[in-house]
Structures are given as C-alpha cells and as structure tokens.
Amino acid sequence: MKPLNSEQFWQFACKLYSKDGMQTKLLGYQDQQGKNVNLCLLLYYLDSLELAVTPSQLSELESCIAEFDQQALQPLRATRAYLKTIQNEVSDYPIIRKELLSAELKLEKKQQQLLINTANTMIFTLHKQAENIRLYLSDKQ
C-alpha cells in the first residue's frame, strides 16, 4: 500500500465536512461523546479507501493526537467560545473571531498531518465494507 497523503486527506475532509448535515453530526460526536473530529474524518477517509483499522490501531491514532488536542486545539476553541459570550464587550470581535478561526483551521490541518504520519506507520486490512467510524463510536476498543 502506498503511503497516505495528508493533502489528499485534507481535501477529502473539507469536502466531507461541508456536506449537508455532516458538520452537525461531527460536532455532535465531539460535544456529546468527546470524540475527535479529525479522527472521525480520518476514519471516514480510510472507509473510502476500503481500509479497516483494528482496535489497537485506533487507540494508537487517538494517542498520537491527544496531547496536541488538549494543549493546542481545546484551549483555542474555549477562547473562541468565551469571546463569543462577551462579543458585545469586545469592540473588534469580528476581526479577532476571524483570526482565531484561521489559527484553529491551521491547527486542525496540523492535527490531520499527525494522524496521517501515524497511520503511515500502520498496516491496514483491505475491507470493502470498512466501517471504522462505528468502531470509534462504539467505545468497545
């Protein structure tokens, strides 16, 4: 199997995320179940390539992004959410919001690269009906 390409994954993820209802679904996984959106997107990507992950591979993928998520992305999201609650008190809120969103997008892309780098160290099983997202959402790892 040739290595996964982070730019192709990014393009796939952007296209999938923009589909009707997908953003709401993914953010629901994040907010209600504590799941990582980029990992969900990677699992959908692997499904599209007919590649199945094992529970141990899934755990390794989760681990490779855990610290980055906790130290970089979650604090940025929290800052953005907080500022939204006080936006009337922040005179240049629209500019700050736009800059924070831009930074968050760059960090999301970096996290996807971390996932691809880790995935490229793995050997996946070919499976025409791969449903990796179910494994992740089932919590039976």
Automatic annotation (TrEMBL):
UniProt-recorded name of the protein: TIGR02444 family protein
Originating organism: Pseudoalteromonas lipolytica
Lineage: Bacteria, Pseudomonadati, Pseudomonadota, Gammaproteobacteria, Alteromonadales
